[in-house]
Structure formats: C-alpha cells, structure tokens
Amino acid sequence: MAGSVLVAIAASIGNLLQGWDNATIAGAVLYIKKEFNLESEPMIEGLIVATSLIGATIITTFSGAVSDWAGRRPMLIASSVFYFISGLIMLWSPNVYILLLARLIDGFGIGLAVTLVPVYISETAPAEIRGLLNTLPQFSGSGGMFLSYCMVFGVSLMPRPEWRTMLGVLVIPSLLYFALTIFYLPESPRWLVSKGKMAEAKRVLQGLRGREDVSGEMALLVEGLAVGGDTAIEEYIIEPADAFPDETDQDDTEKVKIYGPGAGLSWVARPVKGQSRLGSAISLVSRQGTVPLMDPIVPLFGSIHDKAPEMLGSMRSTMFPNFGSMFSMADQHPRPDQNWDEESQREGEGEGEDDRSDNVGDDSDDNLQSPLLSRQATSLEGKEISLAQGNSSFFQVGPNGEAVSGMGIGGGWQLAWKWSEADGDFKRMYLHPEGAGGTGSVKGSFLSVTGGGEIPEESGGYVQAAALVSQPALFSKDLMGQNPVGPAMVHPAETAVKGPKWQNVLEPGVTRALIVGIGLQILQQFAGINGVLYYTPQILEQAGVGVLLSNLGISADSASILISALTTLLMLPSIGVAMRLMDFSGRRFLLLATIPILIASLIILVIVNLFDFGTMVHAALSTISVIVYFCVFVMGFGPVPNILCAEIFPTRVRGVCIAICALAFWIGDIIVTYTLPMMLNSIGLAGVFGIYAVVCVVAFAFVYLRVPETKGMPLEVISEFFAVGAKQD
C-alpha cells in the first residue's frame, strides 16, 4: 500500500496550502486593516477574508462536472497554478482592490483542492485504509496553519511587520505542489475506467497496489459505473460445484453458478430460506422498528458492522477475505486467447473514437481476466464478453494472509456474478460473510488464515453469505436477445463512453446521499470552525490572552498569533488519533463521540464571557476552551464530512455530487466568515459561541438519525447500500 500512501500525501499538499492561507490571512489582516484604515469598517475587513471563499464558491460550481470530463489530476494541477499566481499578486498588492483580486484567484486554488483532493484520495486508496488516508488533508491543513502562524509570528516581531511578505510566501510551497502534480501524481484509476481507458487504469492500479494482478479490483471499478438499478438483498449457501454430488434435497432449478472476476473456478450457490443480518435489518425497517425519524440507511449500514455471533469467532476477519481460494474442485476450461483490448483497439481505429479504449499492444489477456476480457463465440462477434472459466487459480494469499486478487474487493466483501441456466438470469453480486459450516475434509475447502499466514488443510465445507444483487454495469438486453453462449456482457468501452448524466443525480439513492453530504457540510460550517480559525488572533485578544504573555515583552498582536500557533500545534496529535480511529472505530462513531465535547467547550466559553471571573481566570478558561474546541473538532467534525462526501456517491456522478456538497460548504463558509466581525461587535463572544453550541446540538441529532457508518466498505458497495435504503424507505 506504499504507493497509495505516498500518492495521498502528495495530493494533500493542496490542503496544506489551504491551511497556510487560512492562518496567514488571519495574522496579516491585523496589519492590513491598520495600513488601509479599516478598524472602523468591519465589512471591508470581512470582505478581504471572504473574497477567497467567493472564489472557491465560483469555481466549485463547475469543478465537479469538469473533473468528470477532464479528470482529477488536471484539476489539481490547475489548483497549484492558481495558488502560485495569487501568491505573486499578493506579494505586490499596492491597494485593497488588487489584494481582493489576488484573494479571489487564491480562492480558485482553494476551491479545487478542497473539493477534489478527498475525491482523488478516495478513488486511489484501498478500502481498508481509506479513512486514514483521507484524514491526511486535515492533518496537512493544520500542519500548514502551524507553519504559517510561525512565519507570521516571526514577521510580527519585526519593527515594521510587512503583511505582503506574509501573504507572498505562498509562492514557495505552491511550486512544490505544482511539481508533484505534474511529475508524480497519476490519474485516478476510477476516472480512467469511466472513460474506457482500461490499460492505463491497470497500470495505475498496479503501481498503487504494488502487485501485478489487479483483475478483481478492475472488475469492481467497471461495475461501479452503474447508477441506480433494482438492487435486492439475498442469502446463499455457497459450495464447490462438485463438493456434494449426491445431494438431491433441493431442486436443481434453485441452484445458480457463481463466477469470480479472474479466470479461475466456479461455485454453486443455493438460496437460503431464512434471513441474513442484512435481511433482518430490512425487515426491521419495513416494520418501522427503528428510532423515529431515523433514515433506513443507518441500520442497514449498521448491520454490516455489528459483531458476528460468538459461535463464528473471528471468522469475519480471517475467513471470508480468502473466499476466492475456498474451492479447487470445479470444472475448468481453457480460456480463449483473444482479449478485448486488441479488438477494441481495432474498433476504435475504425470508428475514430480515442476514448473507447486506451490500450497498448502488450496489454495481455491477464489485464482483466474473465468475465471482463475472456470472450466466447457468440452472435455478437467482437462486441460482447462472457464469463469464461480459466485454467489457473485466480486468487492469491499474501504473506500476511490478506487477499491480494480474485474476488476480494476490500472490507471482507467479494465481487462475483451469478448465472442461472434455467431462466437465463444474469446478475452481479457483492457478497459478505454470515457463517461457515460443514465438517468434511474437502480438499481445497474453506481456508482460515492464521496470524502466521498458515492455511489449515481441513476445515468447513461451505460459506453462508448475504449478497447485494443487481444488474451488471455491462449488461445489455440486446445481447440476451441474440442468444449468446453464457452470460455475455457488452464491451466495457460501450458503457464507459456514455459519461455522466445529470438525471442520475435524481436517482433515489444518490439523492439520499446528497442529503447526508449537504447536511454535514452546512452544519460543519455553522458550527463555526472556519470563522473561529480565520479570526483566532482577534478572538483570543478579546479573551485577554495578552495578560498570559505580558511578561514576554511582546505586543498583544504577536501574543495572540503565538497562541494561535500553539493551538494548531496541539491539533496535530489530535488529528493523528483521528487517523488511527477513522478505519477502526469509524466515521459515525467519531462524530457522535466528539460533538458533545464541542458543545461542552462552547458552553464554557459562553459562561466565562457572561460572568466576571477575574482577568486571569477569564483568559485561562477562554484559551483552554478554544484549544479543546479546535482539537476535538479536527478529530471528528473536521475531516469526516469531506471523507463521507468522497465515499457515498457512484463513480459516474461523484464529481458532480461532490461539487454540490462543496458548494454548500463554501456558501456556509462565506456566511460565517463575513458575518463574524459584525457578530462580535454586536452580540460579543458569548452570543457567537452560544449560536455555535445550538448548531452542534442540531448536528448531533442529524448524525444520529441520518449518517451511516462506511468504514472499510468499497465505494461501489456504499453507493449500492444507499440505493437499497432509499428503496426500503
């Protein structure tokens, strides 16, 4: 996973620049208003700060659609260019108007980075560490703030502090970001697949995952192109095709064959009459047995993360990820020698469409093995592919017992397709474990990987699994009408070139996800964090921090900047804790655990500003409460909204939906930042923090009732769950 980690670190430099800008303008505005005589004009002062937010809002309105068209990487390159240009102009800035122009251009860079860096990281990171890597932008942003405050503090100690120098230093880190985006960052593999560029997507995935065989994940990315559809939750007993040849207790017509994404083995699946945990969750929703007003999506996601029964032990973590190696007794057939890369290249040359495939001559059949690339003869020569079985094992177990190819797609989920010969039913399945059984010593049966990576030779004989079942992304009714041999699918490029459609945003599952994303972004802003960050030096000055540092012989402005620097330094270990817990405890847990602490710290700030506790006590309590507020915020409400927004939308509309959520983010940011100076003058700190406390109470209720837990789940499975939950509501 080193490739994914390094790419995420490089991409998060864009957020470092955002944090740098936030802290720099917070310190520089103290000197800007003195030079331009803005002490009596808080509206102009607020406009200097808020202009960058206006720029971010403007560019966000179309950044999603453009990123879906042009790619994620070009937009990150554009972000670094905007940062560089704005730094040069701010270094010059002869008057307020030029400064406002520079701040507007700076906002363009900020808007692109804040909107697209989480998307880029989510689309390149493995599901198991996606939360950790997507917390890096928060860490980088706070790190940038600390470095910037240190720089501003140093400049403030000069006889004549120069705010232009403070703002112009942005040019240096923006050059580093530009170099990384140009020479190091690859394009998102999910975006490449959405454009039919399978060969390039394969090469990127191989570099990110550090292995050659990425057929299973490539198949998942293709399936992720689907939006909407009629998804059902079913339960199956899965066993080797010839494990129990003498059993006749169940009608053969109920059996279906299951195929993995690699050229490997097939299995037989039998539907279960009872209910799975997923099915039980749906029944609970149907009976309206959940908490009143709670979104059905919340218990559906929760059913996945509930602990398995004691009788299953550690099965959930060690058994199912190796399900691809589970059987070795199915019939095998040689796969065809041809692959769709060669065919589609000829087709692309004939039709003149470059995006139909972006392949190279040496991209062999093991690029995407069956069902995506192996082809059987059908009446649609060269246009469809089917689920052929190969003569080699398609699953491997890594040195630590992890699944490295085959059906595993992360978080214990498996990707497969089922084919019922009786009725010609062909569906895609996302499988999740629910139990294991059988006592025979079947060769190649269920594998349980121990801590040392050893595989017992004998174990149970079948696996019980819940399945999210829907139409494959590459399914075509036209194919089935022409009697193909086996369950055929259209060429991936045929689906990829269709591109995003705005009507897909109106799909019930996507709409439900938008409610979650927009709600979190608005509540995050009205909880007051960005407004407090922008004006931290002034807020702490009003709180009396100069008293605490009076013996250092520095000015009140420098003292408040120093306190801000120390505050952001304390944020970094807090974010480190969040990075550790994001994939362990989960996003929802962190929100529900940290929001009450935010409320308590805000209430303390209200009390100390309403009553007279003496200068020293007032200053100490105010400073401690603000520090606690910041540190706890960056553990939950800071990173989680952006992480969730980058996870809950389908690939085809992810850019557009992220832009909608980001637009809500920036509108809220503008309102909070622009109105804070006037609110401080009118209702004081007590009134401001009282409003923020009320918003945090509302946010807690919203998270509890509407926000699901997504830790460790593949992006494609998450969007499928939203579709199921919307259908059940």
UniProtKB/TrEMBL annotation:
Membrane topology of the entry: Multi-pass membrane protein
Biased composition (Basic and acidic residues): 332-349
Catalysed conversion reaction: sucrose(out) + H(+)(in) = sucrose(in) + H(+)(out); D-glucose(out) + H(+)(in) = D-glucose(in) + H(+)(out)
Compartments in which it is found: Vacuole membrane
GO molecular function: transmembrane transporter activity
Keywords assigned by UniProt, alphabetized: Membrane, Phosphoprotein, Transmembrane, Transmembrane helix, Transport
Region of interest called Disordered, as start-end residue ranges on this chain: 323-370
PANTHER family named in the record: PROTON MYO-INOSITOL COTRANSPORTER, SUGAR TRANSPORTER
Protein name: Monosaccharide-sensing protein 2-like protein
